Amino acid sequence: MREFPYFHNGKEALDRLKAIVTAGENLPEVILLDLNMPVMDGWEFLDEFTKVPPAKKIIIYIVTSSIDPADVEKAKQYEAISQYIVKPVTVDNLKEILNNF
Fold first, then answer.
1. Three-state secondary structure along the chain?
2. pTM of the model
3. Which of 67, 95, 100, 60 has its CA nearest to residue 81?
4. Contact (CB, 8 A) for 84 and 64
């Protein structure tokens, strides 16, 4: 699996992923998405990213400190979301993600 960088905000990630889609480059298989990011939060990222249809399915895991039931319910509205993981992320969480491949 090819390594992809991490981004400090949703705008940086969105811009890079759009460029990858446009150029026909290899897309990541998984995105670990924090909801609480500066510039563009995770919800804004999801709204914009779903408008850019990638050539393959990308599995998105929300990784957040939010335990708000409204956030959990909102995440269920996005088809691309595989799982909602509350921080801190454990070794078992990461093993589960890896086992899904």
1. CCCCCCCCCHHHHHHHHHHHHHHCCCCCCEEEECCCCCCCCHHHHHHHHCCCCCCCCCEEEEEECCCCHHHHHHHCCCCCEEEEEECCCCHHHHHHHHHCC
2. 0.86
3. 60
4. yes
CA dist 44 and 32 (Å) reads 15
Which homologous superfamily does the CATH classification assign to the domain defined by 32-99? Answer: Response regulator (3.40.50.2300)
> Which residues are CB-contacts of 70 (< 8 A; sequence separation ≥ 6)?
none
Structure confidence by residue, pLDDT tens digits, 7-53: 889 999 999 999 988 888 888 888 999 999 999 999 999 999 988 87
| Domains of the chain, residue spans | 32-99
Task: Report the run of H or E that residue 13 belongs to, with start and end.
Answer: helix 10-23
Tokens of 57: 């399915």
Rounding to the nearest 10 degrees, give the CA dihedral for residues 89, 90, 93, 96. Answer: 150
